[in-house]
Design brief:
Helix content is 69%, strand content 3%. By secondary structure, it is mainly alpha-helical. The protein has a three-stranded antiparallel beta sheet. Helix 2 packs antiparallel against helix 11, helix 7 packs across helix 12 and helix 10 packs across helix 11. The protein is globular and about 60 Å long.
Amino acid sequence: MQIDRRAIENFDWLYFGVVAALSIIGVLTIFSATRPMPGHAHAHYYIKQLVWMIIGIGAMLLIMKIDYKWFEALAPALYAVGLIMLVFVLFKGHMGLGAQRWVSIGGISFQPSEIFRIAFVLMIARQLSMAKPPIGVADFGRMMPLLVLLPLGLLVKQPDLGTAVTMGAVFFFTCLSRGMSKKLLIAIFIFAIVSTPFFWDIFWHGFLKAYQRDRLVAFIDPSVDPAGIGYHLNQSKIAIGSGMVFGKGYLHGTQGPFSFLPEKQTDFIFSVFAEEWGFIGSLVLLGLYFALLWRTLDTARKAKDAFGSTLAYAIAFMFAFYLFFNIGMTMGMLPVVGIPLPFMSYGGTSLLANFIAAGLVLNVRQRRFELFY
């Protein structure tokens, strides 16, 4: 009973409250975004999201009960399974929205890439915490082929460009959090400048599908085809702008329910929220996200060991880049690459992965008292 009492006392209720608040806001926004025209049935996206939220909270609490050192030991096995799943989806996955990202097992459809990102942050946390800082050219070169290039290549092949870009950025900034040598930073900078034109040509013609090239063109100049490839961005900016300062009010937005805004419950969920709650509501939402990031970074600083600290940093960067890319693309500041907004966008696998990541952060924070645990 003493252990249970102290475990409850050391539980980060603030972090849990922020995660729960974001998830509930997500369910409510999905409900509003998918509400039907008169005489039509309401799509059950919000019910499915609510069910996955409950499952996610259960998974988060379960992850908390297991000492995160076990996940450090299991990281290579989990990473290997994740790679196998990414290969499997290329051969047995089914298509959706122009990409082959989903597999179905027992009637349940899920995205292996969403599960893989948890294995990815565990693995890079393990490898980087084992390397003596600062990370040098030899360390970086040893980790790049299997740890980064292989999974990112598999993700681009699906194609899941958004997850690939995010995971690459997470790896780089997690390396920075551990400390990188000046030689390595200079080498990366020179390599990026010299190789970008060469690899961009291969990437543009060899990897990007037609709809992805169209998205990049629309990002550069949305007016080139406002009714075609620029439609998504234009409608998203209209939705955000029409919210003005205080918004139109909950269940009073029009861009989502009248189907002006594509992918309203997934990629453009922030546009629906901003239309209904305006600039003030968007600031409150961003405040919740900044609280999430601040608490995750605080956990990284206070972790009892290198693995726990690196893991929390990696998860903080993952949440930050998903937030930055999603909101950036809805506002036309970044190209549309299909990155969900953490805890808010519709998607069971994505929501579950985010709750697992949150559970790992809570795990590290709760066990920062080494003598107690």
